[in-house]
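## retry 2 of 3
previous attempt timed out at serialization; input unchanged, resubmitting
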Amino acid sequence: MEINHPSILHNSQNLDQSLINALPVCVFRTDRDGTITFVNPPLQSKLQLPLSDILGKTVSELFPDYLCRQHHDDDRFVIRSGEMIRKIEENVNPVTGEKSYIEIIKAPIYGNEDPLTGAWTETSGTKRDESDQAKGEQVIGVQGAFWDISAKVRVEQATAERESLLKVIARDSPDQIILLDQSLEVLYANRGIPGEEKHDLQNKPLSEVFKSDWPRIRATLTTTLREGTPGNFETRMTDADNVVHYLETRVLRLPPGMSGSPARLHLTTTDTTQQNHHQQERQQASAVFNFAREAIVFIDRRGNIVNINRAFTDITGYRLGEIAGRSPRFLLSKSISREKFREILTQVSSNRYWQNELKIKTSDGPDIDTVVAVSATSDNSGAIGSFVVLLTDISRQKKHQQHLEHIAHYDPLTHLPNRFLLGKRLNRAMSHAQESGSRLAVLYIDLDGFKAVNDRHGHLIGDKLLVDIAKRMLVNLDQRDTIARLGGDEFMVVVPDIDSRPRKEKYFEKLLKSISQPVHSEVGVIEVSASLGVSYYPQQDALEADQLIRQADVAMFKAKVHGKNRFEIFDTMKERSQRDTRQLHAELEQALVHNQLRLFFQPKVNMKTGTIIGAEVLLRWQHPIRGLLVPKDFLRADLNEQLAIDLDKWVIDHTLEQISRWKITNQDFDISINVSIPMLEQEDFSTRLARQLLQHPEINPSSITLEVLESSAVQDVDQISLVMRATSALGIRFSLDDFGTGYSTLNLLKKLPAKELKIDRTFVKDMLMDEDDLTIIRGVMGLASAFDKTVIAEGVESEQHGLALIKMGCHYAQGYGIAIPMNADDFSAWARQWKAYPSWLKITAPA
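## retry succeeded, writing output
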């Protein structure tokens, strides 16, 4: 009997005592102090105590401490709240110690206090309200009932354990488990299958999973569902990585009620991809063994031959019956020693693999060349289990290879090494030179007049001439040297350890003399000579073999230009300079593209008045590796014209932009810009400059001076004069820079419309010590006065330089004694605080 409603406890005082005693549950009562006032027979039987040993006792006297604390807390709650409680507890019988589970209900007992005796009398009723409390009713005790539910709990626990175990089995199963309902829809899947995630399978019709094979699969499923006979089917699926999987599925019908759900079919799917692959591999291996063109030999762990394929018999002539059980040692050519055989065995044992070329005996013929590969297989313990030997007959390839190597490495006409073989030997010679510290020479030889011989007498005579000359050169060369024909009438000689040859120039001349000796032929005497170029290795810079050959070729061409029948040595210093120049030009072009150029400004002042008259724009290069570079590091005389023009355009464009920025902040400076002659010779120079000035209307053209090197202007005075006059018409002024270094003439000063002369810094720098420099400066001052031109002195490095110049009547100057070149911001800051030397302002200069 199961008690499902607790109202019996509230109304128990109205029940007949015999009915309470007959209940199949344990019933008890306690007063407010926890003293037991009633137990029914089932509880007394459970305690196995006489009633006298139970009534009047407290719970703590009959039950373990942990239960007493729990009962005490529950009783306190019921007494304080007047509420009933119901719970399931894990219990221990105080007599037998048996563990059990009980369901217990506790309810309050209400009563009134007798005003005369002070005794409490139990009253009837269930739940009390405020009106009852107003009548004086209070909770005077607790009535409880409990019954054993251990069997039910153990059944539920066992069920939960079974469900957990089934989930673990399904989760860890290597197979795919799917439950289907009667409509063949997925109710459960323990994991995803190839191409389908687990969550995508849930509640999905199986027809959408096995689309391609569905008619066949559906027939199997419906047969099992209808007849109950197990079924199976195979299918293929492709996963997200386009890998094909082979699946084998077993189908079972679940007995009615066994699943507890609408599921009617149980599917177990196994991925057999690996087994299929293994089966295919076994079939392929068998096919390879039987039909391979390579000979295959199986050898057991004791080193005896156990099997061979058909190709082995075709190649060697041996049949299995002749060699089974024998060591493969007998197959090796007599030229292969026992030590070599043991070395092979050692390699196979340690590396489990060995491959190389070996000569193999045949049953009735000569030894053959083969490529032999030996692989060791492992048994279950990891030890060597057997050996597989593959032999490939390469006899024909060997002969063909030798023929091809001769063709590939030697000239078919002269039988000298060709360019390819020469390259290999040259590389070896270069490595030896590096290691030994010696030098080698590369000689590039080109015959003079050979084309005329070919044109006059035909190629047959020309070829015979080449053969004779090749033989002569071979006779005159050292055995250590390598001579090669590069093609046509070009030859090359590699001479190692050239410095050990006495008078190497005589060596070159001897070689040239052997070539120029007359050759007697059926068409008469033929005479040719040769031009010879020499390059040495190693050099200061690292270089490859082809670069060394190219250098010798350049030197040979120089010998041909200078008269033929001679030798020339490659000039490494000149070539290095040209290479550095090319590199510099390439980097400068990148500097323009990547905005690496900077403008610096060096002030120009009137030393006598202490005023700033302007500044000269100087170019700087913020090199990404070398740092900030000054013009002498990158503006060379060999700068190509287009690059010089591009640099000038960049300087002019950015200078005009800087002047405009100064105008915005009310700063006004006269600026001098250096321009090259190639820039001035541009047809649209004046026109382009005029367009730029129109874009900057705030700039007064007269505040701009273009500085032209005097030494450059001398080269084409008339043309430069025309450009300068056209540009001057725009209001722009000109200055002759580095005046005194360009062999100026009075005609130059007359023709060029330059208003200013800049004395070169080299004269100013030493003027205090060198009377000649002082005389030149006086001469420049005289010319300037005669032609009404302003003079500016460069290179003023000290106060004394300025004093000397002012005394000579030269007031305008620039130099480190005034200020170093600065960027635009620093120049503006300097201009606001600069003051001239007091001595300069006090000196009296000639008028």
